[in-house]
Amino acid sequence: MAVYSMTGYASASACIAQVTAQGAVDGGSAAGVGASNSAVTAEIRSVNARFLDVSLRLPDELRGLEPALRDLVAGALRRGKVELRLCTRGESESAWPQPQIDQLQRLGRIEDSVRNWLPDAKPLSVHEVLQWCKGAAVAEPLDESALDAARRALAGLLDAREREGARLAAVMLDRVARLRGLALEAEPVVPAVVRRQQQRFVERWNAALEATGAAQTISREALQERALNEAAAFSIRIDVAEELARLRSHLDEIARLLERGGEAGKRLDFLIQELLREANTLGSKAAALELTNISVEMKVAIEQLREQVQNIE
Fold it and tell me: Taking all residues of the chain, what is their mean pLDDT, rounded to a whole number?
């Protein structure tokens, strides 16, 4: 399963082909066929968000589709701030209207009735007839075309989010490899730093005893045993081997989630927080400049990971 980004954009259009029969003015048989070139265009875009937030921008004639459109988006997406916009495009004002037989018959009956009462009334011109037919045109069914356009736009958005997710996963795996390398750099440094700090602690302990004169009142064996116990406790406090082991475990889990794909954004966000906690502990325990530098490099790589995870669904 792929990793999906929460960022993407897509659009699609669905045309409405409505066939209408045209007949002669005298009521003869149909003489031709006209087609409507109206269309519905759907635009959908999404950005990152903690939950799914759907916003619809619909014309008045498509307001009734809002529940169906929300169900459509919720069935395909899990997270992100999504905006779906639908707009309709009808025939241009300059396009020739296509009068139907029943429209012409009704106009003829109305004109005869008016001229019976008003004999001096002028007959309707061709231009007036076309304008009346255009204004009385039956509204075209847009619902199916709107839903079709929304489905195709949503499919395009999923493709865009999948492509972006693949790029994000590649960047994140690169940062994971960088953190693994830093952990490998720190691993051989830890024992040497512990031994060095332990030796330094013993030297300072003996110097403090000599300065206070305690070495003359307490046996050498007791002082040596106390010094070793304090040095061991100090070495435990500065040892970061456990933090490095947990950090590697978190990195393995991140790599597993990226390979598995699917809805992994929230789990990845939690693991990033745990990585940052281990890096902070490593920095606070660092008793040598080498470990401090490694801790800083780890925090930089983790922050880069966090920026990418914010866009993962």
Answer: 79
| C-alpha pair distances (Å), 240 with each of 177, 193, 208 | 20, 10, 28
Whether the predicted pLDDT of 41 surpasses 70: yes
Secondary-structure percent of the chain, ordered helix, strand, coil, rounded to 5: 65, 15, 20
Sign of the Cα pseudo-torsion (135, 140, 143, 146, in order) = negative
The whole-model pTM stands at: 0.66
Closest CA to 44 of 154, 164, 144: 154
Domain edges within the chain: 8-163, 164-309
List, in order, residues 6 or more apart from 37 with CB less than 8 Å away.
15, 91, 95
Q: Are strands 52-57 and 80-89 parallel, antiparallel or unpaired?
A: parallel
* C-beta atoms surrounding 44 within 10 Å: 28
Cα separation, 89 vs 97, whole angstroms: 15
For 246-268, what is each residue's pLDDT tens digit? Answer: 899 999 999 999 888 888 888 99
Angstrom distance (rounded) from CA 203 to CA 225: 14
Distance in angstroms (rounded) separating the CA atoms of residues 64 and 71: 13
**Span 83-139, pLDDT tens digits:** 999 998 754 444 566 777 887 888 888 888 888 888 888 888 888 877 777 655 544
